[in-house]
Queue: 4 jobs
Job 1
Amino acid sequence: MGRIVALLNLLITFSLLMAPESYLKVVSSQELTGSEFFSSINEAKQKVDKAYTLSRERIKESLNGAHLSPSDFLKYLKAPVAGTRTAIRAANYVEAALNILKKKMQNKCPRPFNITGMMKKVGETYDGP
């Protein structure tokens, strides 16, 4: 059940970001292809999942260790529960995907920019920063 909720939250989070390739453009006449967009999302998901897995393994190892300190136990107790953890993970997916997209776009567009402002629907005008 938890996996279903997590996947549903992930789909909802990225539903606004998911668009056909023709709907994604960059202001500077360069195009952000759909494959770059989706590969960035997949890369972000893998990085965030790996970080979460390592974090949980470290907490479990510290709890199983011979030298359990009160701070280790408090870390475990203060870890977010399922719903909150899913929301935080979804936000981390979005943040990581935007950072990856920003790095990819810096090669195409040398001037400073806002990555969320770079993506727009075809036909809309870019107001700029």
Job 2
Amino acid sequence: MPTPVASPLRMDREEIGIDTALQRSIGEFGRGQQIFYCLAQFAWVSAALQTLVMVFTGLDPVVQRWFSCSEGPHREACEAVLNSTKSDPSEDFCKLPVDAYTWTRRGDSIVSEWNLVCADHWKQQAVNSGFFGGFLVGAGLFGVLSDKLGRKRALLVSLLVGGVSGVLGGLSPSYWAYFFWRFLCGVGVAGIGMVAYVLGCEYVGPTWRGFLGVAAQYFFAIGATILPAVAFFVPNWRTLSFITGGCSILYILVLPSLPESPRWLLISGRKGDATATLAAIASYNGTHLPDVPLADIVTASGSASGMSGVLFHRTLRNRLLVQLLAWFSVSSMYYGISLMVADLPGSVYANNAILAVVELPAYFVASMLVERIGRRWTIAPSYVIAGTCLILSAGTKGPVSLWLAFMAKCCAAAAFAIIILFAAELFPTVVRNVCIGASSQAARIGGILTPVIIIVAHAMHFPLFAFLVMGLLSLVAGIMLFTQPETLGSVLPETIQDVACPLSPGSSAPWRNIDAADSNCFAQFYHRGRGFLRMKSGPLEDQI
């Protein structure tokens, strides 16, 4: 009697993917995932500290009035500069001979440490461009390493690179040594944010990825809120560098508590380890593993059109150009406002704390509006309002200018939280990776060029000219975003041919239907892209 052969349908039922296992039995965001997700995202706190420490280590002692006047024939002229009502008296200060003044807080800034004023003023912001240049390199490097080494080991390497270079930066004997260590720090910080983000997302089910994509930004805001208080009580720039770099090194102690990504383990052929990780999550959740084994991940082999397919398609080309401008603009705004806050009235420490705090409601409101009034009608007004506030801030003085900058930062944070989701829904699956990657590069270039804009503004003796440039860019980007189609409630295009059809009605929450690479888990990391986006078309398990 012949042995019965299982039907193909029966065979298909005998193995399931990770997402199906999470949805059916383990739980998509139970207690286990909540713990592991939060532990992973706390790496963003250290990333924020090391990114924004530049605001305090590079404070201009002339603007802060950290100098005293020496006895001699130039004392009266020096005191006139010291007591000037100008927010930035650098033009008058640079007319003084070097023996007319003495730095009173020499160790509190690299500017006073190495006398980066007047002819060397450009070096203040050049080091920040170096950091973002390192960020550009690190985003691509650690994207590859996280696929080759695993998420945890890549995170370990990035923490060591970022943390050690941050500490060594505090030991720098010269400006150019510091520049090198800040560049290397940017390389590491890019990896910290990106790998931690992906690792946290890979623990959870698809229903929660969109929400958690925005929620991850809260951890960066927490770090940004803590930093001004630390800098206020520990103003010495070298000590501050030790503290912020040390936080990344200390975070390494958290890594043993984090399991490796079950998705990476599965695609690496370690099905037993992947199952063990899911069993640990199920144990925390009080649930159980499914009765059937996990299916092997087979990478999708569909053809992708690449950038050439985008450039020769009028609609996609126009969408990409708008996205490039939007990403460049929002990155420039977000970091530029923080770098420029020392030129605004009030305490630089209090102002930076407020800038960080306003991000929290921005993320909450954005996450609500984006599912109610749509992507376009949330993000485009955010750009327009932010740009308008920056332009008005450049033309006003006193508290009004300050509060306009706060409002602009709030809107910039909201835009940053949405732009990646919106972009991911605008492009078809076959070119989504390349389009988001190009947009991410534009954001990084925006970060690199923003300090250059600030250098030019200070050379003009009109620091808030930088706000004018950023505001105009944001205003134009916002207007252009109004021309983009609304994607809320639409089924996303899969091929370039699908773009010719109007976006069709679908779920009220489209991100729930996006593959892992297309959802916020993989499509939303830039932020503050914070890096390269490494996405592929295909089912969820094919993306990891």
Job 3
Amino acid sequence: MVVSKCFNIKKTKKFLASKKRSKKLSSVPGIGKLIASQLENEQVHDSQMLFHKFEKLNLPAYLQWYMKSTSANSWHTGLTITALHMKYSPSNNGINLTPLKTMEKPEKKKVKVAIPQAQGMCCSIQ
């Protein structure tokens, strides 16, 4: 992962300053609270640091995918992830998405394919 530019703390604080948005952000269980508190306390200086904190959480698969597919340079990545979490959170909409642990790829089993030997196919050039 590429080390990203610093988050724009002023823009983030402006976003969090709105009572409605700040309240909404802080009311999200787990990830939302983490993002809101980290950004408000200015403990997150770049998105790599933010991603590192997310990796320690047991996030749903759609968030893992979003984090990997999103540019690490955008200061609003964390807020967008929060918005996604708010939208699809099981506590909000009753949508139960499979957690990451059960989404892990199963080990690949080696399958031996028997290739039949051609018998009586020897050609002799005379």
Job 4
Amino acid sequence: MLDRHVRGRRTHYLAHRSPALPADDGEAHRDHRCNRSGAVRDAFGAHDVCAGGGDGRVCCPVLGCRLRTGAAHEGCAMKVCLCNNRFPPKVVGGTELIVYDLAVQLRDRGHDVSILTLSDSRAAETEVVDGLRVHSMPNTNIYNQFSHAVRSGLKKALFGALDTFNPFVFFYALRHLRRLDIDALCTNNLKGMGPAIWLAAWCLRIPVVHVLHDYWLLCPTSTMFRNGRACEQACQGCRTVSSPKAWFSRLVGHVVGVSNFVLERHRQQNFFGRARPCVIHNARQPFSAIPSTPTEPHKPFRVGFIGRTDATKGIREFFASAAAVHGGDLELHIAGRDNEQVLDALIAAHPDLAVVRYGFVAPKDFYPLVDIVVVTSMWNEPFGMVAFEPWEFFKPSIAFTSGGLPEVFSAFPELTVPRGDVAALGALIRRFVDDPVFYRDMARRCHAQRDHFLPPRQLQQFEAVLLAAARHDQRDAGVRAIEVERDTRS
């Protein structure tokens, strides 16, 4: 573990200067924080600092807090805080599981990992989840976003305004992060917490890595989906709301996109202009330690859909593509909550289709029941883990080219069709139904490609980025992430 003391070294050799946050580009060479915290000088490389046995840590007062100006170095464990607005066992989506997996792996690698998340009440909570210290900060916005109550437009507007910068979050995070004395902060989904977390870390000179899982920074709904269509760019209203967040994004030293699509979509809107960008695709642990074996397709052929049965997930397009198969011997299997109550109408509109409804089913229990999974997302999926999860069970998947989905299928572009082209998707389904040889070949190829989305690759890449952030090295992260990617492919 990194030493928590300076061991008598001179600040000239120990202090690393974190990236400046100028008021405008013309002042990019100035670091206004130096006037508050005392002179901070450029140091030699992190390897030189660590060669003497120290960790490059110097404490200086800022806003009544003690901050650290040093950083972790290669070969040593880091003290890292992962921040996300939800954390297991409270799960609303895939991000919580990704953050959990990353936290466990970093801990198992010897790093000191803590979790900062959001409570469902006005009170703070601290607990231990699978050996991880989880601190839930008070929920100080006007309502709890995770409850299922109906809210007026006014309440939603007030929530969004306070979420842009919540002073209660800022001061609470300032105190909490000061106590943690971490080397790097990795933020993920921040809805309900907001960019105030970044400002608190900046005041304490804690390097920030932000991971983009959705579009909340650009759009209050997090989906960039309106009137049944994906938004190609932020509308005027969203740009107005998001502009303060874009300014705060200059506090972030490294930004990670779960796909190149979601990363570029943010950079096009002037987010993270000062951050070092890189792409680390999502990864998931296997559902089972017991390897699956190939199976012959069912008769009738089972076409699966898993997820919310709403417009963003393309449930209508799923039915339309199945209808376009024209007489194929197939059966639709649908797993997911029907919150919008659309399934009955869709089934009635397609009386010739055999449909099996499951409601909510765990993915590991659903995938073995079907022969193929269809991903008809009409919104721009940031990445779409549902596209590669079935591969573990030798079940191919096919998808629209929405958002980051083409990056999942980079090895199988023939398994994607243009978004909304239900005729082409129906033809692709028909090929799987009619050609057992093609089905078996794609099942084996997809299963082999599943290894690319296992956590060890993701862990190595995140370690490289967090290490570079802790060393305040904005050039090192992207290079190391690329090197790790090459190593895992070789």
